[in-house]
Each structure stands twice: as C-alpha cells, then as structure tokens.
Amino acid sequence: MTIAQVMTQAVVTLRQSDSQDIFIALSLLRQHQTHYLP
C-alpha cells in the first residue's frame, strides 16, 4: 500500500519563515479545521 492510497487530502505545511509567529500557525490550523496533531 502506498501513501497516496491512504491520503485523503493534500498535506498542510507551514513555511519556515512563518514558523516564527505562533498566530500564523494558529490561523493555519483554524483555516483547515485541524483540531489534533499526530
């Protein structure tokens, strides 16, 4: 089984330049309705 067969949505990533601001990260989580991280 490949990863492509298991994945249902595109991967959401945070640019390293944006990782310095916690509010950008929180906004990204809210935008994609991410409630839990693995």
Can you walk me through this structure?
By secondary structure, the protein is an all-alpha fold. It has one domain. The protein has helices at 3-6, 22-31. It is elongated. The two termini are 20 Å apart. The model has no long low-confidence stretch (mean pLDDT 82).
Please describe the topology of this protein.
Blueprint: H1 3-6, H2 22-31
- Percent in helix: 25-40%
Low-confidence blocks of residues:
none
Identify the quaternary structure here: single chain
Strand composition percent: under 5%
Principal-axes shape call: elongated
Could you give a short account of the major beta sheet?
none
Helix/strand/pairing class, anyone?
mainly alpha
Order of helices and strands: HH
| Number of DSSP-assigned strands | 0
Mean pLDDT: 82
Number of domains: 1
Instruction: Give the radius of gyration.
Output: 12 Å
Gap between N and C termini, in Å? 20 Å
Number of helices: 2
Summarize the structure.
By secondary structure, this protein is an all-alpha fold. It is 37% helix and 0% strand.
Spell out the key features of this protein:
2 helices, transferase, mainly alpha, kinase, 38 residues
